[in-house]
Q: What sequence folds into this?
């Protein structure tokens, strides 16, 4: 099923990514993640199917992922994109190795933004908790 659905989703995102609502994009990227994860299990049994499904649009997928990591304000969308990329890089290293260098910077920037947000929220919670304890 993924071998037919993945090219359809690729064409949908390439032509309409700006026209889709954020919730629709999140659903599409979740579906892409689940298909890629399923394909990674299939690669052990039948690597030829995986190469056939992913080889042609792989460069286009990488560009879509990089654009989402660099430009999307949706944390959920970035999470699914990062999970998909992680799955592809970990489970399909032969197919993705030549794209690794182009992905490192956007992923690094995503993690840096996430850490800053986490630290800011953590400090707010600590400050709020300390203020509540001092007033008691």
A:
């Amino acid at each position: 099923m993924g071998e037919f659905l993945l090219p359809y989703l690729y064409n949908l995102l390439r032509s309409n990514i700006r026209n889709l609502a954020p919730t629709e994009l999140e659903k599409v990227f979740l579906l892409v993640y689940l298909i890629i994860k399923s394909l990674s299990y299939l690669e052990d049994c039948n690597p030829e199917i995986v190469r056939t499904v992913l080889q042609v649009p792989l460069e286009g997928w990488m560009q879509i992922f990089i654009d989402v990591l660099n430009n999307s304000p949706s944390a959920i969308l970035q999470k699914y994109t990062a999970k998909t990329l992680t799955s592809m890089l970990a489970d399909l290293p032969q197919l993705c190795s030549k794209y690794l260098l182009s992905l490192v910077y956007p992923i690094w920037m995503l993690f840096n933004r996430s850490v800053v947000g986490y630290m800011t929220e953590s400090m707010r919670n600590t400050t709020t908790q300390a203020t509540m304890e001092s007033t008691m």
